[in-house]
Amino acid sequence: MTSVEPAHAAPHAREKSPPVTAVKPARPARSVRKNRDRLHGLLMSTPAVAGLIAFVGIPFGYAVVLSFYNVRLGSPLAPSFFGLEQYRRLFTDPDLSGPFLRALLNNLTFAVVVVPVQTALALGLAILLNRKLKAIGLFRSLFFMPVVFPMALVAVIWRLILARSDQGMLNSALHAVSFGNWGAFDWLGDSATAMASIIVLSIWQGVGFQMVILLAGLQQIPGELYEAAELDRASRRQQFRHVTLPGIRGTLVFVAMLTSVLSFRVFDQVYVLIRGGGLNEDATRTVMYQAVTTAFDQNNVGQASAITVVFFLIVVALTLIQRRVVRPDNED
Amino acid sequence: MSTNTGLTRTPLRRFLDYAVLSVLAFIFALPVLYLLIGSLKPSDDVLNGLSGFLPTHLSFDNYTAVLDSLNSDSTGYFWRFMGISVLLAFVVVTGGLFVNSMAAYGLSRLKWRGRNAVFTLVLLLMLVPFESVAVPLFYMFNDQRNTLYVLALPFIANAFSVYQFHTFFRSIPPSIEEAARIDGAGPWRTFFAIVVPMSKPAFASVAILTFLTQWGSFLWPVLMVSDPSVRPLPLEMSVFQAQLPPDWGQTLAFGVLLVLPVLIVFAFFQRWFVQGVASSAVKG
Question: According to the UniProt entry, where is the signal peptide (chain B) (predicted)?
Fold first, then answer.
């Protein structure tokens, strides 16, 4: 009776409609459906869109507003208009700008190292794993596995590996390799290596994510291109330069930009390791860490909102650059 | 000639591939091995140089000790931390699948005035990372800290999920729904009876990605939770590891218990994990 098969249903409907459309009633039927769509489309979208406005749109606008006020939690004073004072303090006040500019610099250092290193590592892994070998699936899962580890746990594991005592995993490994010449070194506590430690554990956790995206990109390169290159006696290096790289350029740019946005959002591992892990605070504080401590520990919501707005502007700038770089590439 | 060189190359190359992969995989797996072995060793042997890797004196004592020590009102209860994480993940994933897929259907398959404006708004809100609204949300909900609903609510509606569903629904040929609608099914029935069953891959990958993010969620609980009775597992992980004097065996056992649920999900739904992550690349 009622068939869901489009092939049957469509001609059936067409045969039936002409006598009806000749008279008026058919039109209301159609516009009733249109009206219905209009109402139901709106109804269906409402819960999610309302949620997004309530928990993303309004708070975001509110952050901008709060950043122009002097607002403190638990303060008896009413919030007062502050103009651009919060921003001026962030960038020029000798007491406040120090930690904030340091946080910006730390984020920048993190991004400048992590983006190229993690992308290159992910590409290397993706190329190694893009082969038809037995048990290749097992290797792929293994490299992807840290991605499912909560960052709070990753921080704790690495806290032990990098422990400052001579019994720490890395210290004792170096001790063994250097025939006893290496002693205890405080990887997390020393200002020279604290950021490097955060970088290493972040790459360990995140590289599988980029690898999977790049692997998907590599698998879209037609195999004939490699066969043709092989016929032309292209060396492996030439194949990489003239087939692989152009084939995944778009994906590669995407991954690099995604990594740079993610690298500005770093918070969990820094927070966990500064609170109780002996991590050097000044060398590793990030913009988000700064926002949270300003809002939560110092109750200075206005100042924290200004940090949030600066953070957002950086992320949007990076996203817009990403769109710009990726788009022309997609067209050709 | 070229086939000849190909043949002589293959076994050696294959061996090299395996060798390189195995060495890298071993280095990569070391922290995970350390976690597993350490969680089963007496605490004093964990931070003990390279012998921390030796699987000696293994027992589940650390696990029972974690469950015993987190078993009072002042410390909180381990199973309660776990229960809260499970509950939050369940609410955020199922609630999110429901509202976000429905919105995506309304925005991709039904024609109504203002639809494009609303979808543009969703795309714009997708640019706003949670981090940049955490502080104002913290201020707005400050008198509702330590409540469960405030931990879940901000994450149910998700612009990126809407976008992922939207992309998927647009790829469904319209003729299929047309047929259902000509047979008299309204938009709701068409959606729930025809479109949803057809879209299992999209639901699976959105669900997995949401679960993964929610299970590790840390920033929002840091801001909103001080009471152990509503504390999710990752936040308790950071509290537990900072205890003095530290007990490394127990800390690692706690870590295994924290990651185990997500590893089990990963083992069973690996394909969807990878697809969900790879599909996020479409975003560019």
Answer: none
* Domain segments of chain A as ranges: 6-66, 96-331
The pLDDT tens digits along chain A (332 residues) read: 333 333 333 334 443 444 444 444 444 555 666 667 778 888 999 999 999 999 999 999 999 999 999 988 887 778 888 888 889 999 998 888 889 999 999 999 999 999 999 999 999 999 988 887 778 888 888 998 999 999 999 999 999 999 888 788 888 888 888 887 777 888 898 889 999 999 999 999 999 999 988 988 888 888 888 888 888 888 888 888 888 888 888 888 888 888 888 889 999 999 999 988 789 988 999 999 999 999 998 999 999 999 999 999 998 888 888 777 765 544 43
Q: What does the DSSP assignment read for B120-159?
A: HHHHHHHTS-THHHHHHHHHHTGGGTT-HHHHHGGGTS-H
B29-44 exposure pattern, b = at least 16 Cβ within 10 A, e = fewer = ebbbebbebbbbbebe
Locate A305 and state its tokens. Answer: 């909102």
Beta-carbon contacts of A232 under 8 Å, excluding residues fewer than 6 positions away, are: none
Instruction: Tell me the sheet residues that pair with B76.
Output: B72
For residue B245, whether the previous peptide bond is cis, meaning omega lies within 30 degrees of 0, is yes
pLDDT of residue B76: 86
Answer whether A204 sits within 8 Å of B215, measured CB to CB.
no
Nearest-CB residue to B188 (from A40, A42, A253): A40
**B47 and A165: CB-CB below 8 Å?**
yes
- Burial (Cβ within 10 Å: 0-12, 13-18, ≥19) of residue A226: middle
For residues B42-48, give the mean pLDDT. Answer: 82
CA distance A289 to A294: 8
- Provide the 8-state DSSP code for A147: G
| Inter-chain CB pairs, A–B, below 8 Å | 333
Contact between chains at B49 and A167 (C-beta distance less than 8 A): yes
Domains annotated for chain B, with CATH where assigned, are 2-67 (no CATH), 72-242 (1.10.3720.10)
User: B215: distance to nearest CA of chain A, Å?
Assistant: 7
The dihedral built from the CA positions of residue A65, A67, A68 and A73, taken in this order, carries a sign that is positive
Mutate to test the interface with A, among B135, B156, B248, B262 (most CBs of A within 10 A): B135
Measured CA to CA, the distance from residue A203 to residue A200 in angstroms comes to: 5
CATH number 3.40.50.280 is the correct assignment for the domain at A96-331: no
Round to whole Å and give the CA distance between B132 and A60: 7
* Interface pTM, i.e. ipTM: 0.89
CB-based contact B258:B233 (threshold 8 Å): yes
Interface of B with A in 48-107 (CB under 8 A): 48-50, 52, 99-100, 102-103, 105-107
**Is A37's CB within 8 Å of B273's CB?**
no
Nearest Cβ partner of A49 from B118, B139, B255?
A: B118
3-state secondary structure of A210: helix
